[in-house]
Amino acid sequence: MTDAATGAAAAPSATPAPAGPSAPPALEFRGVELGYGPQSVLRDLDLRLAAGEMLGVLGPNGSGKTTLVRGAFGLLAPRAGAALLQGRELCRIGRREAARAIAVVPQEGTPIFPFTVLETVLMGRAPRLTPFAFEGAEDLRAAEAALAAVDATGLAGRDLAELSGGERQRVIIARALAQEAPILLCDEPTAHLDLRHAAAIFALLRRLRDRRGLAVLAVTHDVNLAALYCDRLILLAGGTVIAAGPPREVLRADLLARAFGATVRVESRADGTPYVVPEREAEPAPAPPPPPSPPLLPPPDRLR
Amino acid sequence: MTPRATPRRLALALAILGGATGSAFLLAAAVGPAGGIHASWEIVRDLRLPRAALAALVGGALGVSGAAFQALLRNPLACPYLLGVSGGGAFGAVLAILLGLPDLIPGLPLLPVVAFTGCLGAIALIHAVARRRGHLLAHDLLLAGVVANSFFLAAMSVLQYLAAPYEASRILHWTLGAVRPDSVPLPATTLLVLAAAAALYFDAGRLNLLAVGDETAAMLGVDVTRVRRRAFVAASLLTGAAVAVSGPIGFVGLFVPHALRAVLGPDHRVLLPACLLGGAAFLVVADTAARAAFGPYEIPVGVLTAVVGAPVFVVLLARRERRLPEGTAP
Predict the structure, then answer these.
(1) What's the whole-number average pLDDT of chain B?
(2) B residues 69-98 lying closer than 8 A (beta carbon) to A
């Protein structure tokens, strides 16, 4: 079942692609199975990411979202099916070449040594450097342009470890942009960010899709931001895709209940974009209020 | 904040540290026992310069391998002796002393050869234990290395316990660490150190990415396991060469990379060559002090570097602590 999948004729797909109809999708999974050791994490995975499209991947913890990113970069070879980059099998492409086509924003901590922001962004040029080489004027230009694109030019000389979570994430996205790859994969880009910074990251990813025509895949737990900014969503559960399509088709209370086992209500904005409202979980039985215990200390006003 | 790594910056660092190494050699050539400076040319040529050359070689090897281990283990406290490569070398050296190999054939450097063989055995053992499903992770390497180290040191204690008094004192002297240019194959050691340092420099840019994280490095096109294996073997060969010819000399591999990183920044394309020269200059000066600063006595340079290195390192750590900005989350 491996060779047949590769040779299959390009079947017309139901998913609308913003790029020309003849262009192969930037990234495509056909019946892909991914896993580690004896365990298979994802099965029968079909996915198309077109140039200039922003795709959100949703799913509960442990549903294989990070595994999907690793497979989409070719770090993990599919055990069945085919993972294709512009029509070529990903696992047959050299790692450095893959890193020139696909930039990843991973979830990872800070380096152990005090690299500056500019040095960090310049690391995005590594797939283009020969051994022994230093970054040249062109690399510096690309890094500075990337910093400007994420509005972080002022941070260039700072130590990466000094930055706040939102600043750090913008710098890591700038490193990915410095790779000048047409595809951007983000693994939970808004993890640990507050409301404002999480929205700013999604707005930035959307801007990159609109202005540069990047194909963006964002794995996220932020269902509402994903609905606001993504063209399409896919919902993972139980190791496979249970729904794919525009946000209003994927963010349905029944599907979300099936994927997350959570009680939610889905409402609609004026323009039809859905948003998800969590409902309070029903308590099994109301616990009786604890009997008032005598205070260990007298109330503060009696302490004077 | 240090400026970023450029060829100009590398050239500047090499010029300054090269000058420092040259000055260290002049100092070593001029200074005699008890600080006297009179000597015949024969003494300079046959005793002081070879000894300075060996000190430079050992110091450079330890400096580079310390910097490389810190990056490839993602641990700023790593030093060349952390992983038990030196333990394997020490076990080999003790075995050689017990078997009377050093005096077996005059002129044949059997002790360093057996010690180096012990290092090679330790490298193979650590690698075999650490690799898991084709991967070589930093913490697996660290665990395997630390266990190998305690095993070799335990085996060495057994041999030491069985040794006769004369051999026991010889073993003790070896384990203190000293630069002894007699019965050391200097050209072969030089070749080995330069080749291993060059192999590490080939991966200097990739070591930067490994220091950020395995996932990041992999996503930037680095074959993480291959680079870590290459760097582990090269850094271990440097450690092995240093230990085989001089015994374990502490703190050079920890202190030199940290001090130079604070000045030059963490980029290994500048840091590794700087550590080669910086380590060389450092150990030539330390060894000259060890043989000249204490009146008629000469103390092993390993004792000196440990006694002086620890407080200096504490100062370095304290300064770094103060540099952290306010409100930095851990």
Answers:
(1) 89
(2) 70-71, 74-76
